[in-house]
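Hey Z.,

So I finally got round to the pyridoxal-5'-phosphate thing we talked about over coffee. Here's the setup:
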Amino acid sequence: MAKISDRVRGLTAGMGDGWGVYHRARALKAQGVAITDLTIGEHDIRTDPAILDAMQASARGGHTGYAALAGTGDLRDAIAARVTERTGMRTTRENVLVTPGGQAALFSALMGVMDPGAEVALPDPYYATYPGTVRAAGGVPVPVPTRPEDGFQPRAEALSAAIGDRSAALMVNSPNNPTGAVYGAETMDGIAEVAQRHDLWLISDEVYDTQLWSGGHLSARALPGMADRTLVVGSMSKSHAMTGSRIGWLVGPPAMIADLVVLATHTTYGVAGFVQDAALHALRLGPEFEARIAAPFRRRRAACLELLGQAARIRAHPSAGAMYLMLDIRATGLSATAFAERLLDERRIAVMPGESFGQAAAGHVRVALTLPDDALLNAFDSMLSFAEEIMA
Ligand code: PLP
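And the result:
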């Protein structure tokens, strides 16, 4: 076999650990072992039948050829209208690129802002794929630790200190996966100030903008002076339970969007037309539908926090958004990886050790609230008794 590229070989920079529990849980499941899987952010419901009907009608109606590369005009308009309504920022189809999921929007954004070797500063803990996506696009990720004591909100001074001659962008995510932090006005102003002072792009991943449990969602692009340097990543995965349809978007300045259409021409070649039509149908279901998809996580978060209120060894960060809870397990004396490994072995429950999301989440595990309420509360009960047992 000829050589596999260093770029692809180096995507995870040898940081495979942190994903061991996830892979082991998958392997056990494949062997038929019953595992309570609280690892990844996927709803316990499937895509709504009405959306699937729209998808089928579109495909049967003939929308199975190459679709409009930037996205269909109707879908771009609908996304633009949603962004305008939610953020107050006038947005038109020229600001919108439809992508195969938020992940492709992230990659596209990074390709647009960086030349090879450029650096991207990102608050740590971060969504697990971020460093690899930066590397895939030829850049260098620069994690900037945040602190549990600060509710994992990034500080402007820390971000600024991470900026060097080769910095091209900041990449932030609010509501945040894995921490559940929602960045408040002070944090967002700090991020905007650093981006402007150092003349950087801001990539703002807002795929959890419908999963907000307290406070308001501030979109970075709506801050003064930020529209021309901000690329917002959106997705139908979490808001509409459409993870498998691979449909998302990037919103930014028209000149950047036009260049990224050229990139799409040479990479993805767009998104299936019938998926775009299904997405349009889904968006037209409006905010009530989005609230319905988010409701179980709101309810489960509250129930789990109440249960955890009585726990001695495990402390929850009361997330303000997203479909996870970040649990501080430092009082058990175990590392997060050891805790998660033993939880899998002894209770057949799979959670993500904090190390999967960077160094700043050490001593924490992330639990996805993606099981029906009773099963989830049983799993939390079991986790709490496990924590007591290992202390005994
Ligand atoms: N961004 C964040 C913070 C996520 O948690 C995810 C998925 O879990 C994504 C982006 C990518 O989602 P998708 O590609 O399904 O839109």
